[in-house]
Design a protein that fits this description.
Blueprint: H1 2-22, E1 33-34, E2 39-40, E3 46-47, E4 51-52, E5 59-63, E6 69-75, E7 95-98, E8 101-105, E9 116-123, E10 130-131, E11 134-137
Antiparallel strand pairs: 1-11, 2-10, 3-9, 4-9, 5-8, 5-11, 6-7, 6-9
Amino acid sequence: MKKLQKLSLSLALSLILAVSLALPAFASNHSDTNLPTSFISYTTNATTGVRAKQNTTSVYMNNTSGMTLWVYANGGSKPSNPSVTYSTGTTRGNYAKVLPGKYRIVTWIYENGYRSAWLNISTATSGVSGNCKGQWSPDSVGSYPPAN
């Protein structure tokens, strides 16, 4: 009987340890998701799926398309047909021109009360088009330069 109690106690402690080590992995949503590989242009956009945003960190994006992208980081639910959101001006707020490479997009999504995020992506230059490529996450880790 004592062996069974020791075994039960050992299993319970192992389970508690495993759960406590796994909890930090759920504290933020920074795992990468592939960007849609859709054709995009200055007037044709692609949108990502909606993902949970769990803290005030910037949105992370790794642009591997070879093009400068115009990205609008949105909070909340996604409309069925989001319009293209582009601008020839400088970036501000949730809008960013993202060069090829790894960047963070500074947003106020979480601070504005939204707990989910998604991206609307087009090219940043008229006459440039191609396939959207790369990864993103709604919460970032690491030190990447800001896109905006």
